[in-house]
Input
Amino acid sequence: MLTKDNYETYLEEKRKYYAELLYERINKESLKKDLIFSYLGARICYYSDYPIRILFEEKFLDKGKRTQFLLNLYKKKHFSVFAHTPIVIDLSDINVETRERVFKYFFKVFPIDEFTAIFTLRHFAENLPEEKFKKLIDIELYDWRKDNDFMKSFELKSNIVIELSEFNARYLQSKLFIFNSSIPEWKVVLAYNISRICSHQWIRHTAINFNQRSHRYTDVNAFCLPYRFQEDYDLFNRIYMDFQDLYGLYTSLKVKERFRKEELRFLMPQGTATTLIASASIFVWKDFVEKRCIPQAQEEIGEIAEILKQLLFSKEVYS
Output
């Protein structure tokens, strides 16, 4: 008889059993492309530069170093990054009762049709033994640089982004990248230099998988502002000077007073610039677009939703 004390153990055993059952059905060829997204998700958290440069790191390009990096995340149970890699499983040779149990025990599984469904690498990271999981990630990746359809980029124009330094400031671009996975039903989106206001709104869509740049590990160095503030020169100059003063305080406390970044981030405004990676099935992105392509949506997240609408969905769907 199941009790509260042993129910979690029961669920864990069931998930491990079904992960083993599904393991042999994984198309490892598709992982050569889609494993890229797990690496991106992992590195975004600790990266403050232009995010596409992550895909030129030696740690990414070298198979052994990349495998060890991802395996270390597995050992530390940092499973969220693996949710960005889709895995389509053909369930046609599994009876209906067993298929229903699979959907019952695994969170965020998206059926494509009666016999196929989208799982993610996270389902297997959480439930496979190390030697089997390593076989999934210890692979040569395909060369995305030769694929013009792998990624599309868009400049976001809702805000201005100001990067500060000790001696000067400069404007930065805000960009959106949309990646095609090995299956058309799964899209990965990366937003660079959006505000934390925007990211707070975005992560409310809990069916989407997220990883975000952490200001516990990276310096705060840029701020986002709606263009309206630039219309009044005196007002904009006053805001800019306040940002510069705040950045000076942040730097001084970090260097001279030995405050940690995780403490200093409490001083920063919600307009602090961040990077976010998000992945989901096309059905989930449709829901996101429907909820954010409305007049009431804030301009920044509304612009992102509009780009996704135009790229992923026909005009007939949202007429």
